[in-house]
Amino acid sequence: MLAGVSRAGPSYPLLPQNVLRASPRRHMAKAAARPEGKLRKSGFRAVERDERGAIIPKKKEQSLGAFRALPPANLTHPAFKSNDRAVLNLPVFTPSRHLLGQAAEFNLTDNDPVRMFGLPKKMLLEFRLLSKPCSVVRDITVHTAELLGKAGDKSSLETRLVLNGQQGCGKSYLMLQTVEHCVSSGWIVIYIPRAVKLVNSTTSYEYDLRTRTYLQPKFAFQTLQRLQTVNKYALSGLTTSKKLVFEKREIPLGTNLADLVGAALKDPPLAPLILDALMTELSIQTKHPVLLAVDDFQALYCRTAYRDPHFIPIRSYHLAIPRMIMEFASGKRSFAKGAFLGALTTSDTNYKTPLELRDALGLPEEHAASPYHKRSQALAEYTHGLQALNVPDQMSVAEAASLFEVWMKDRALVPSSYDELFLSKYTESSGNPRDFVWKGLLATLEP
């Protein structure tokens, strides 16, 4: 008997056949009776379900985006109204001696390089805080403008400058002042305010078998689009010197350079090839001088964040656009009339100035020299002929006073004694322009 029970197992009462058939129908009937979109309580939280009973996920909150200053017309509260508010009335920027030590505003048009090419991050934040984009005309501003004035009739081989100086001394502002001066003087300007974007793996890239380099089609397309907008008048007066063939597309001889750029805008995959062809045409024409200005210049000589299919870091001179910039910087390619201008960024610790570039510019090494410090011969070839242009580490008292007056008239400062504040902040920052503004004047707004 025990064996029989073990083999048969325990006996359970069988349910009637009609009960088994009715259970699914009752479940389906309840699901059908529930209205669509109604909330069904599950535990302590109410969830929304669809007609099949599946939970409808809630939409995530979208990003608020970047900060932008509120227009003055929207500030209708009485607290924002003041009868004694001074108007920021500044002269238009020109690098002339009669404006030396004074603040001047940039007259930004619709096709201005500031609007099209962009700005470095710190400068962009300052311009958003100020009611008008402006800068102080320093002695180095006038000196650089004079150097570029002489380079307008010479080859870029003779004028390849790299701005160097202490962190926050105003290299980016000097480059922007030079760009604005060249645009107003009829130059063709190519301005890259954040060259680190070319090597930090933030833009797409693809390998090209023809050139055996890695192309960056999206960045090339954007560069062509901005270049055409800023220099549309100058490009309309230039034509191609030969017939150009891009895969299945042909550009005949004598085509307007503006139309050449337009072909890339209509067919974005051709943007890298057309950008290289456009730079070649600009290098041989003599009607307009050309300025190639690159901020974060030292990043092009550092190790990139890009990887090949074997996950080996890609050298910067194996990327098409950085290689093109380095060729114009080193003299491998040159403009018949024009100049090259770069600026070193010392605040980015991920892309420090390498030894090859320091040796070419005659800069002191950060650490003690050692025979074990390796140098790349390939990178050294892209540094020939570069000259350092040192930017003063400190502002003069007159220059700092003009900068102080700009922020004071823009209601950024609220103390009652301005003279004591100016002298204290100028002394604390040791005359450094960035520290004077960010760690000095703007720090007075903190509670």
UniProtKB/TrEMBL annotation:
Protein's UniProt keywords contain Nuclease: no
GO cellular component term of the entry, any: mitochondrial small ribosomal subunit
Keyword flag Calcium: no
Gene Ontology molecular function, alphabetical: structural constituent of ribosome
UniProt-annotated location(s): Mitochondrion
Keyword vocabulary terms for this entry: Mitochondrion, Ribonucleoprotein, Ribosomal protein, Transit peptide
Family: Belongs to the mitochondrion-specific ribosomal protein mS29 family.
Protein name: Small ribosomal subunit protein mS29
Organism: Hypsizygus marmoreus
Highest classification ranks of the organism: Eukaryota, Fungi, Dikarya, Basidiomycota, Agaricomycotina
Gene: rsm23
